[in-house]
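User: tokens in, sequence out, please.
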């Protein structure tokens, strides 16, 4: 950040990517508040925690109304378990969409007046799952696709007072990485599919969020910044029977 004294709210910022984002903003000298249903298992030094059920619209408005100031909102809360579509009813999938799409909308609306007064910024935490097929997490992918579109519309409607951008995040090594990729062997194998050769660290996402909220990004709004280590190697390159040694892309 370009100046201290800003107030930053990170939703769901108690662990994993959210904690990495909160720590990155705290290092800039900003006052950082994280909100979630449960407090962090590991205390976040220099970061305030407020318990909020982000699905409760009234509670969300009460939380933001109580803030004396707000300069940056990071809509990080989200996630989903592995759940093939046919193994759950529509209501269960709708809960995933609510958490990953409706909750960021609700928080942004509750924060609007604060951010309008401060000339603030919103950073949505999107996912590569919203840009490609996501078997096993289809509702999550659909919500993240919607979130990116929502951010673009918000950026137009709320300009020039509020900037709105999205971080499109790839695979991240968090405390729960084993649930997605398996043990160390699984994490290493998955990391090998990333051009940069590793999964993202929560701090990588945090530093990108700090940039988008900073004055260095003052003319960036409605944008989607890919934080995915170069993406995924196209599957056909490994399936093809020619050009193995050259690695040609046709």
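Assistant: Sequence out:
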């Amino acid at each position: 950040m370009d100046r201290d004294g800003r107030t930053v709210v990170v939703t769901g910022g108690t662990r994993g990517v959210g904690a990495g984002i909160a720590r990155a903003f705290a290092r800039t000298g900003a006052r950082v508040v994280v909100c979630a249903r449960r407090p962090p298992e590991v205390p976040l030094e220099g970061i305030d925690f407020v318990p909020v059920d982000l699905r409760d619209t009234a509670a969300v408005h009460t939380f933001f109304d109580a803030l004396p100031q707000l300069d940056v909102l990071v809509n990080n809360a989200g996630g989903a378990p592995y759940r093939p579509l046919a193994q759950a009813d529509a209501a269960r999938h709708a809960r995933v969409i609510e958490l990953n799409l409706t909750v960021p909308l609700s928080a942004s609306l509750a924060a609007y007046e604060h951010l309008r007064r401060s000339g603030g910024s919103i950073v949505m935490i999107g996912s590569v799952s919203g840009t490609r097929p996501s078997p096993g997490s289809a509702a999550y992918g659909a919500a993240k696709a919607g979130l990116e579109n929502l951010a673009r519309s918000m950026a137009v409607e709320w300009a020039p007072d509020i900037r709105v951008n999205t971080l499109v995040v790839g695979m991240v090594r968090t405390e729960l990485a084993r649930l997605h990729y398996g043990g160390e062997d699984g994490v290493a194998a998955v990391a090998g599919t990333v051009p940069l050769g590793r999964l993202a660290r929560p701090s990588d996402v945090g530093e990108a969020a700090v940039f988008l909220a900073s004055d260095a990004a003052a003319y960036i709004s409605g944008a989607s910044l890919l934080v995915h280590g170069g993406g995924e190697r196209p599957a056909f390159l490994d399936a093809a029977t020619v050009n193995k040694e050259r690695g040609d892309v046709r």
